[in-house]
């Protein structure tokens, strides 16, 4: 709101396209949310910026969406919402409420913001939407657009044209209707402009509420039949004895007050159903530009071109449009004669209607058995035998092998083939809206291949993994290495066991020796020695 109304502080230039980029990773507040903080005063839609900061957040509530739309329109601002993917649905709903706005997905690091703005601007600049100022009481306005490629739209769609490029020309027709005169009959002004642009058209309406016409009128006017009246103030004033809008009737034929009454089906309907004119108490229906289209009926209440259509054909091309209702040809029924009563199109190859597994409705089979599909309920994609039936064709079209490899193109073109990288990419039963049969088959080389078979809208679809799973022979080197390593490990294990046993045996023997040593009894003999010469030299030896 502040960016929209604070033109001087923001620095909006005049006579330029104004883009407002709103970037966020969260939702938004609107009128009423301020009550949670005790703020009840409605937003005043005025500028309250000081030093680039909004100073009245504690005083005024958030603006309403309608209030914001008005301010954006008044200041010719087009909004681009650059938001994260999580909040895309919220801002797409907001976009529907704010004309001339766009929504783009902002990446996590905002690196795509420039491209996002460019794409959004291209989208905004390719659409023209007209809006008008508030209409005075008693006025209505209707738009009709002639857009690119001759597309004509009315009503709300008549306000806009899309997919416009530079150099394209579009045209808008605007009908202003006054249902009454304004107070005092003073002039009224309305403005019409395209959203997001400064250019506008200003229309001043002068109301003529009372006629100030010539009292004598224009005699013998062509508008008053055969000189039976004078044209005064745009209407015929009939001579005595003549009545009617153009004085075309004699009062002896029909009374004036009864003339319009006889041209209405009842008091609540329009004159001649608004499809003709009441002439002398009888309806004369309008002529159409297309000579084959015409109004009919005593009150022009019927026509032959407003019946239901099928395949862009009136009554499906199988009936006549009479008084806005299709009268169907034999073997056809329905509001648009689009339901055939012919059951030949439902006949299966076994001469049963819909193969006995469905009902024939409007010339087409409606299968009652969910396993069966196809035009005549003869296709069963999940029945046993489907995989074997299509094995050879899948093999030859995918790998160029199999029994039908030589005549693959001639015999195997009945289904569409889609190749995938692995089994995880194959359609799963819970992902598809139609039954899917998973198949696993083996070729002549004992290689397996995987595929799925399904029927989607009478079209056979096969998804196949483009790689075979073939058995592989034994790898000699790992086997030899394994045997050698095994022998070595066994030898080491035996050696360790032998060593362990020897250690245990030695410890037992040592323990036994120690025990016997402790149990041994020794005799101790004390010998007292004496000195005795050992030789002639006088040496002595002490002996115990």
UniProtKB/TrEMBL annotation:
Signal peptide region = none
**Alphabetical list of InterPro entries matching this protein:** EGF_extracell, EGF_integrin_1, EGF_integrin_2, Integrin_bsu, Integrin_bsu_cyt_dom, Integrin_bsu_tail, Integrin_bsu_tail_dom_sf, Integrin_bsu_VWA
Q: Where are the transmembrane segments?
A: 476-498
Q: List the disulfide bonds.
A: 6-47, 181-439, 209-213, 224-236, 233-272, 238-247, 249-263, 278-283, 280-315, 285-300, 302-307, 321-326, 323-354, 328-337, 339-346, 360-365, 362-408, 367-377, 380-383, 387-396, 393-470, 412-447
Major localization class? membrane
List where in the cell it is found: Cell membrane; Cell projection, Invadopodium membrane; Cell projection, Lamellipodium; Cell projection, Ruffle membrane
The membrane-topology field of this record reads: Single-pass type I membrane protein
Q: Which GO terms describe its biological process?
A: cell adhesion mediated by integrin; cell migration; cell-cell adhesion; integrin-mediated signaling pathway; muscle organ development
Name the UniProt record assigns to this protein: Integrin beta
- Return the similarity comment: Belongs to the integrin beta chain family.
Q: Please list the residue ranges annotated as the Integrin beta subunit cytoplasmic domain.
A: 499-533
Record-annotated Integrin beta subunit tail domain positions: 387-475
Q: Which domain of life is it from?
A: Eukaryota
Keywords assigned by UniProt, alphabetized: Calcium, Cell adhesion, Cell junction, Cell membrane, Cell projection, Disulfide bond, EGF-like domain, Glycoprotein, Integrin, Magnesium, Membrane, Metal-binding, Myogenesis, Phosphoprotein, Repeat, Signal, Transmembrane, Transmembrane helix
Q: Which residues form the Integrin beta subunit VWA domain?
A: 1-211
Q: How is this protein annotated for GO cellular component?
A: cell surface; focal adhesion; integrin complex; lamellipodium; melanosome; ruffle membrane; synapse
This entry's Gene Ontology molecular function terms read: C-X3-C chemokine binding; collagen binding involved in cell-matrix adhesion; fibronectin binding; integrin binding; laminin binding; metal ion binding; protein kinase binding
């Amino acid at each position: 709101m502040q960016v929209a109304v604070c033109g001087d502080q923001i620095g909006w230039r005049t006579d330029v396209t104004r883009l407002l980029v709103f970037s966020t990773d969260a939702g938004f507040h609107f009128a009423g949310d301020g009550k949670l903080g005790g703020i009840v005063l409605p937003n005043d839609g005025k500028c309250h910026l000081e030093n680039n900061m909004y100073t009245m957040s504690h005083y005024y509530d958030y603006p309403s969406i309608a209030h914001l739309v008005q301010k954006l329109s008044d200041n010719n601002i087009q909004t681009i919402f650059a938001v994260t993917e999580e909040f895309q649905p919220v801002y797409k709903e907001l976009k529907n409420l704010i004309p001339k706005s766009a929504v783009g997905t902002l990446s996590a690091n905002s690196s795509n913001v420039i491209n996002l703005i460019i794409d959004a601007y291209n989208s905004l600049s390719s659409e023209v939407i007209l809006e008008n100022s508030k209409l005075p009481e008693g006025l209505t306005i209707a738009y009709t657009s002639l857009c690119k490629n001759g597309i004509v739209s009315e009503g709300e769609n008549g306000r806009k044209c899309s997919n416009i490029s530079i150099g394209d020309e579009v045209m808008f027709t605007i009908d202003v209707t006054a249902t009454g005169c304004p107070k005092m009959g003073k002039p009224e002004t309305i403005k019409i402009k395209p959203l997001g642009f400064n250019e506008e058209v200003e229309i001043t309406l002068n109301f003529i509420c009372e006629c100030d016409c010539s009292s004598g009128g224009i005699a013998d006017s062509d508008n008053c039949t055969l000189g039976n009246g004078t044209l005064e103030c745009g209407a015929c004033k009939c001579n005595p004895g003549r009545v009617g809008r153009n004085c075309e009737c004699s009062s002896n034929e029909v009374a004036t007050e009864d003339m319009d009454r006889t041209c209405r089906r009842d008091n609540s309907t329009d004159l001649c159903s608004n499809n003709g004119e009441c002439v002398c108490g009888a309806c004369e229906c309008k002529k159409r530009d297309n000579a084959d289209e015409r109004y009919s009926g005593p009150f022009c209440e019927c026509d032959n071109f407003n019946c239901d259509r099928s395949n862009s054909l009136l009554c499906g091309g199988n009936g006549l449009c009479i008084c806005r209702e299709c009268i169907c040809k034999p073997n056809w029924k329905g509001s648009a004669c689009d339901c055939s009563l012919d059951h030949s199109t439902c006949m299966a190859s076994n001469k049963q209607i819909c193969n006995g597994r469905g009902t024939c409705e409007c010339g087409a089979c409606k299968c009652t058995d969910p396993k069966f599909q196809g035009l005549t309920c003869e296709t069963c994609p999940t029945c046993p035998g489907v995989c074997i039936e299509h094995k050879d064709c899948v093999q030859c079209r995918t790998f160029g092998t199999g029994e039908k490899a030589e005549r693959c193109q001639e015999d195997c073109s009945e289904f569409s083939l889609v190749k995938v990288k692995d089994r995880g990419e194959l359609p799963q039963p819970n992902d598809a809206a139609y039954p899917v049969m998973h198949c696993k088959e083996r070729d002549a080389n004992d290689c397996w291949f995987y595929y799925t078979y399904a029927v989607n809208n009478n079209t056979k679809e096969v998804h196949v993994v483009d790689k075979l799973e073939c058995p592989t022979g034994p790898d000699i080197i790992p086997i030899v290495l394994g045997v050698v390593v095994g022998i070595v490990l066994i030898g080491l294990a035996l050696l360790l066991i032998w060593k362990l046993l020897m250690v245990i045996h030695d410890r037992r023997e040592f323990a036994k020796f120690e025990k016997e040593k402790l149990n041994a009894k020794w005799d101790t003999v004390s010998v007292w020695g004496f000195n005795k010469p050992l030789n002639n030299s006088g040496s002595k030896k002490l002996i115990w």
